[in-house]
Amino acid sequence: MNKIVLMSFALITLSISTAKAQSFLDKIDNAINKVDKASNTADRASNTGGKVGSLFGKKNKKNTAKATEDNNKTVIKISGIDLTSLKKLDGIISGINGVIDTGMKYNAAVSTLTVMHTGSSEKLLEAIQLKAKSIFTDKNIESFDEGSIEIKMK
Protein backbone atom coordinates (compact mmCIF):
# COMPACT_ATOMS: atom_id res chain seq x y z
CA MET A 1 0.00 0.00 0.00
CA ASN A 2 2.85 2.33 0.85
CA LYS A 3 4.36 1.67 -2.57
CA ILE A 4 1.14 2.65 -4.32
CA VAL A 5 0.84 5.90 -2.33
CA LEU A 6 4.50 6.73 -2.95
CA MET A 7 4.22 5.96 -6.67
CA SER A 8 1.02 8.05 -6.93
CA PHE A 9 2.70 10.98 -5.19
CA ALA A 10 5.74 10.74 -7.51
CA LEU A 11 3.49 10.55 -10.58
CA ILE A 12 1.46 13.60 -9.49
CA THR A 13 4.63 15.59 -8.77
CA LEU A 14 6.12 14.65 -12.14
CA SER A 15 2.96 15.57 -14.03
CA ILE A 16 2.81 18.99 -12.31
CA SER A 17 6.43 19.79 -13.21
CA THR A 18 5.83 18.61 -16.80
CA ALA A 19 2.80 20.88 -17.07
CA LYS A 20 4.84 23.85 -15.80
CA ALA A 21 7.60 23.13 -18.30
CA GLN A 22 5.07 22.88 -21.12
CA SER A 23 3.57 26.20 -20.04
CA PHE A 24 7.03 27.80 -20.09
CA LEU A 25 7.71 26.43 -23.59
CA ASP A 26 4.32 27.72 -24.78
CA LYS A 27 5.21 31.20 -23.51
CA ILE A 28 8.49 31.11 -25.43
CA ASP A 29 6.67 29.94 -28.57
CA ASN A 30 4.13 32.78 -28.25
CA ALA A 31 6.90 35.36 -27.84
CA ILE A 32 8.67 34.05 -30.96
CA ASN A 33 5.41 34.22 -32.91
CA LYS A 34 4.89 37.85 -31.85
CA VAL A 35 8.42 38.80 -32.96
CA ASP A 36 7.89 37.01 -36.28
CA LYS A 37 4.58 38.82 -36.88
CA ALA A 38 6.19 42.18 -36.06
CA SER A 39 9.02 41.45 -38.49
CA ASN A 40 6.59 40.53 -41.25
CA THR A 41 4.57 43.69 -40.59
CA ALA A 42 7.72 45.82 -40.79
CA ASP A 43 8.71 44.19 -44.08
CA ARG A 44 5.27 44.82 -45.56
CA ALA A 45 5.35 48.44 -44.37
CA SER A 46 8.78 48.93 -45.93
CA ASN A 47 7.62 47.52 -49.27
CA THR A 48 4.50 49.67 -49.20
CA GLY A 49 6.56 52.76 -48.34
CA GLY A 50 8.90 52.05 -51.25
CA LYS A 51 5.97 51.74 -53.63
CA VAL A 52 4.37 54.96 -52.37
CA GLY A 53 7.72 56.76 -52.60
CA SER A 54 8.19 55.64 -56.20
CA LEU A 55 4.75 57.07 -57.07
CA PHE A 56 5.90 60.49 -55.90
CA GLY A 57 9.19 60.42 -57.77
CA LYS A 58 11.44 59.28 -54.94
CA LYS A 59 14.14 57.15 -56.51
CA ASN A 60 15.54 54.15 -54.76
CA LYS A 61 19.23 53.93 -55.69
CA LYS A 62 19.09 50.12 -55.76
CA ASN A 63 16.33 50.23 -58.38
CA THR A 64 18.02 52.78 -60.65
CA ALA A 65 21.00 50.53 -61.36
CA LYS A 66 19.42 48.05 -63.71
CA ALA A 67 21.19 44.74 -64.02
CA THR A 68 21.75 44.65 -67.75
CA GLU A 69 24.53 43.38 -69.91
CA ASP A 70 25.62 46.98 -70.54
CA ASN A 71 26.83 47.43 -66.95
CA ASN A 72 30.51 46.71 -66.44
CA LYS A 73 32.86 46.66 -63.48
CA THR A 74 36.32 48.19 -63.75
CA VAL A 75 38.89 48.07 -60.97
CA ILE A 76 41.31 50.99 -61.02
CA LYS A 77 44.51 50.36 -59.03
CA ILE A 78 46.51 53.48 -58.24
CA SER A 79 49.91 53.27 -56.61
CA GLY A 80 51.47 56.22 -54.79
CA ILE A 81 48.39 58.46 -54.53
CA ASP A 82 47.53 60.53 -51.47
CA LEU A 83 44.08 60.39 -49.89
CA THR A 84 43.11 63.91 -50.98
CA SER A 85 43.83 63.16 -54.63
CA LEU A 86 42.05 59.81 -54.38
CA LYS A 87 38.92 61.48 -53.01
CA LYS A 88 39.10 64.10 -55.75
CA LEU A 89 39.46 61.40 -58.41
CA ASP A 90 36.54 59.45 -56.92
CA GLY A 91 34.39 62.59 -57.13
CA ILE A 92 35.40 63.12 -60.75
CA ILE A 93 34.62 59.52 -61.66
CA SER A 94 31.25 59.65 -59.87
CA GLY A 95 30.27 62.63 -62.02
CA ILE A 96 31.07 60.97 -65.35
CA ASN A 97 28.08 60.12 -67.52
CA GLY A 98 27.44 56.36 -67.49
CA VAL A 99 28.98 55.73 -64.06
CA ILE A 100 26.48 53.97 -61.82
CA ASP A 101 28.45 53.48 -58.61
CA THR A 102 31.97 53.80 -57.22
CA GLY A 103 33.75 52.21 -54.29
CA MET A 104 37.01 53.49 -52.83
CA LYS A 105 39.70 51.72 -50.77
CA TYR A 106 42.75 53.68 -49.67
CA ASN A 107 46.19 52.25 -49.00
CA ALA A 108 49.40 54.27 -49.01
CA ALA A 109 51.01 51.74 -51.37
CA VAL A 110 48.13 50.80 -53.72
CA SER A 111 44.64 52.27 -53.55
CA THR A 112 41.63 50.88 -55.41
CA LEU A 113 38.59 52.43 -57.05
CA THR A 114 35.88 49.99 -58.13
CA VAL A 115 33.61 51.51 -60.77
CA MET A 116 30.28 50.16 -62.04
CA HIS A 117 29.59 51.76 -65.40
CA THR A 118 28.12 51.37 -68.83
CA GLY A 119 30.39 50.99 -71.85
CA SER A 120 33.95 49.76 -72.01
CA SER A 121 36.84 50.35 -69.64
CA GLU A 122 38.69 52.17 -72.40
CA LYS A 123 35.84 54.68 -72.81
CA LEU A 124 35.77 55.11 -69.04
CA LEU A 125 39.51 55.82 -68.97
CA GLU A 126 39.14 58.40 -71.77
CA ALA A 127 36.34 60.15 -69.88
CA ILE A 128 38.38 60.16 -66.66
CA GLN A 129 41.46 61.57 -68.42
CA LEU A 130 39.47 64.48 -69.86
CA LYS A 131 38.41 65.60 -66.38
CA ALA A 132 41.40 64.51 -64.24
CA LYS A 133 44.32 66.13 -66.07
CA SER A 134 45.46 67.75 -62.83
CA ILE A 135 45.74 64.35 -61.10
CA PHE A 136 47.38 62.11 -63.72
CA THR A 137 48.35 62.00 -67.40
CA ASP A 138 49.09 59.34 -70.03
CA LYS A 139 52.61 58.80 -68.67
CA ASN A 140 51.12 57.63 -65.34
CA ILE A 141 49.09 54.81 -66.90
CA GLU A 142 50.86 51.50 -66.38
CA SER A 143 48.27 49.28 -68.12
CA PHE A 144 44.62 48.95 -68.97
CA ASP A 145 42.48 46.07 -70.08
CA GLU A 146 38.76 45.42 -70.02
CA GLY A 147 37.85 45.49 -66.33
CA SER A 148 41.24 46.70 -65.09
CA ILE A 149 43.22 49.95 -65.14
CA GLU A 150 46.56 50.46 -63.37
CA ILE A 151 47.98 53.91 -62.67
CA LYS A 152 51.32 54.73 -61.05
CA MET A 153 51.63 58.22 -59.63
CA LYS A 154 55.32 58.25 -58.63
From TrEMBL:
Where is the signal peptide, in residue numbers? 1-21
Q: Which UniProt keywords apply?
A: Signal
Keyword Signal belongs to the record: yes
| Protein name per Swiss-Prot or TrEMBL | Uncharacterized protein
Q: Which organism is it from?
A: Chryseobacterium kwangjuense
Recall the taxonomic lineage recorded for the source organism.
Bacteria, Pseudomonadati, Bacteroidota, Flavobacteriia, Flavobacteriales
